[in-house]
Write a structure and sequence with these properties.
Number of domains of chain A: 1
Oligomer: heterodimer
Number of domains of chain B: 2
Number of helices of chain B: 19
Helix content of chain A: under 10%
Structural class of chain B: alpha/beta
CATH class of the largest domain in chain B: Alpha Beta
Shape of chain B: elongated
CATH topology of chain A: OB fold (Dihydrolipoamide Acetyltransferase, E2P)
Number of helices of chain A: 0
Largest interface: A-B, 9 and 12 residues
Strand content of chain A: over 45%
Number of strands of chain A: 8
CATH superfamily of chain A: RNA polymerase II/Efflux pump adaptor protein, barrel-sandwich hybrid domain
Radius of gyration of chain B: 27 Å
Largest sheet of chain A: 4 strands, antiparallel
Largest sheet of chain B: 8 strands, mixed
CATH architecture of chain A: Beta Barrel
């Protein structure tokens, strides 16, 4: 199980995936807004999205567990 | 009559010295997942290359017949050794004896490490674990006299070593007091996440003086010190720390009088990468991964990042272009839009001083929106630290190549371009005194407020201004040396590295500043 933790705080702008989705490596899972920049987070490997812990509009923190992908 | 009695004792003392603090102390050390200093030295060096300095230093005890009963070696091990065939000076505290708190001979050897490095002009590696002076003094049979007032200033050799040879250090266990000071008096420092803490003083002293009850790990573990600039890197364990030191040394010359070693390279200079054509999104608000650009442009797998956990809007490290070691500096737009913060500026300044000291060309990949703004940035004195980085860049003498990847704004951008530097721009480059969004909001605020659809008028103005910031006019006016296809970046930089080879020999020798840790 691959845990996707946030590298910075910010707010969640778009969530583009949900548990059960099959993803390829490099697919954008969600996008944070940080300092007026849209920072995409991509699937590190191909697999299935096991969990999504954030929602659009959330204020998030560095280190927070955002999603999990099972490979 | 011969000298066999004495030579037998010499051999016996050597044996006893290798027992260090004794089998129990060593076993205890191992049980905590740590290696002894002799094991660490062996692990770092090429096999069989260690030539010890002062192996007989220590304190001996004899019985009433003059027979040797016991021998406590100096608790600092020092010597010459080789890393990838290149000779270095290596030393470190022996934690199995007095917790590394120096015995009189231990102290003498530890101070000698820097002097040897400066005398022989060889890279210096120190592997630290131990505390500094103890209240009980250095011990020994008689109370030690204080050193003479006319002895050379103790830390002068530490500074001289940094000004003369590459110094690389590792924290492999708890490092407190004087060893912690020497740990950070280095060009590259790494701590073992599994086993190391760095402390000005340990929990007992802190509890007594401050009433604060924290463990060693809470006070000085990697979560604290890889994020604040104390050490450059955190490696998973001891073995990885030693590996990182070997990697760092591979980019360095032996001393400031030599050029960094150029190695053979089988990564073709003409290698292009299609991914560079769209890695910078056309949507100006969308971030991208600058490290992917670094991995693509420089010799494959050559990038060695330093300080990743600190000043994260800036990326600094070492890499190679066609085998030539270079310094690499880039912005990370995923962190605070790549904006230069006080700690990012500090990291960049140390990076530039490292390259200047060892005559390494600097390559800067620019995506700088300007100094960080807002109340936290003001509290951190961003403009003071940032300007320090800008002026440091202006005073460097090494060759610079800057590639405008995306943004280049404000006073902060000036730090990313060295004097007489080579400047390339990607089509995605935007530059000016202020990013478009901020500029429009201020300069046109009345016009926008008065418009029938303020939001639409603002967007129109932003697009007009953004168009004026296209790189083409700059290239036409020779404001940059060239506007390039991103896929050609590696080739362009490799050609540049070849052209600046002739400039490097004149840079050898002392810098005009003494490096500040």
């Amino acid at each position: 199980m691959i845990k996707i933790e946030l590298e910075t705080g910010g707010s969640v702008w778009q969530v583009l995936t949900k548990p059960g989705d099959r993803v390829e490596a490099g697919d954008t899972l969600f996008i944070l807004e940080v300092m007026k920049m849209e920072v995409p987070y991509e699937a590190p490997v191909a697999g299935e999205v096991a969990a999504v812990h954030i929602a659009e509009g959330d204020s998030v923190e560095e280190g927070q567990l955002a999603a999990e992908v099972s490979d | 009559m011969n000298w066999k009695k004495e030579t037998d004792e010499i051999a016996r003392r050597r044996e006893l010295a290798h027992e260090q603090g004794g089998a129990d102390a060593i076993a205890k050390h191992h049980s905590k997942g740590r290696l002894t200093i002799r094991e660490r030295i062996e692990k770092l060096l090429d096999p069989g290359s260690f030539e010890e300095v002062g192996p007989s230093a220590g304190a001996a005890n004899h019985d009433e017949n003059g027979e040797l009963i016991s021998f406590d070696p100096a608790n600092f091990v020092l010597g010459f050794g080789k890393v990838e065939g290149r000779r270095i000076i290596i030393g470190g505290e022996d934690f199995t004896m007095k917790g590394g708190s120096p015995s009189p001979s231990g102290l003498r050897k530890s101070v000698y490490a820097e002097e040897l490095a400066v005398q022989y002009k060889l890279p210096l590696v120190r592997l630290h674990e131990g505390s500094g002076g103890s209240v009980g003094g250095t011990g020994g049979k008689s109370p030690s006299l204080p050193g003479p007032v006319n002895a050379p200033a103790r830390f002068r050799s530490v500074a001289q070593a940094m000004a003369t040879v590459p110094v690389a250090t590792a924290a492999l266990g708890a490092v407190a007091g004087l060893p912690a000071g020497r740990l950070v008096a280095s060009h590259f420092s790494v701590m073992s996440k599994a086993t190391a803490q760095i402390l000005t003083a340990g929990p007992a002293v802190v509890a007594r003086a401050m009433g604060e009850k924290k463990t060693k790990e809470e006070l000085g573990g990697w979560k604290v010190h890889t994020k604040n600039g104390t050490v450059d890197n955190g490696a998973e364990d001891e073995a990885e720390c030693l590996f990182e030191i070997r990697r760092f040394l591979s980019f360095m010359p032996d001393n400031i009088g030599q050029l960094a070693p150029v190695i053979g390279c089988d990564d073709p200079v003409e290698r292009t990468d299609e991914a560079l054509l769209d890695i910078v999104p056309r949507d100006r608000r969308r971030a991208f991964d600058m490290r992917r650009i670094i991995q693509s442009v420089f010799d494959q797998t050559s990038f060695f990042e330093m300080g990743a956990g600190y000043g994260r809007s800036q990326i600094t490290g070492l890499a190679r272009l066609n085998g030539q070691p270079v310094g690499v500096w880039a912005n990370n737009c995923k962190f605070l839009a790549g904006s230069m913060t006080a700690d990012g500026a500090h990291k960049a300044r140390r990076f530039m001083e490292l390259c200047e000291t060892f005559s390494l060309p600097i390559i800067s990949l620019v995506d700088e929106p300007g100094f960080m703004i807002g109340s936290q940035a003001e509290r951190e004195a961003t403009i003071r630290h940032g300007t320090s980085a800008v002026l440091t860049a202006a005073m460097t003498t090494v060759p610079w190549a800057s590639v405008m990847i995306r943004r280049s704004f404000g006073v902060a951008q000036a730090a990313h371009y060295g004097p007489e530097g080579f400047v390339l721009a990607w089509p995605s480059a935007e530059s000016g005194p202020l990013p478009v969004e901020g500029g429009v909001a201020i300069a046109f605020q009345r016009e926008i407020a008065a418009a029938p659809d303020p939001e639409a008028r603002r967007r129109e103005l932003e697009e007009e201004l953004a168009a004026r910031q296209s790189p083409f006019p700059r290239a036409e006016a020779l404001g940059v040396h060239d506007l390039i296809d991103p896929r050609q970046t590696r080739l362009e930089l490799c050609r540049w590295v070849d052209r600046v080879q002739s400039l490097l020999p004149a840079l050898l020798g002392p810098t005009r500043f003494t490096i500040r840790p």
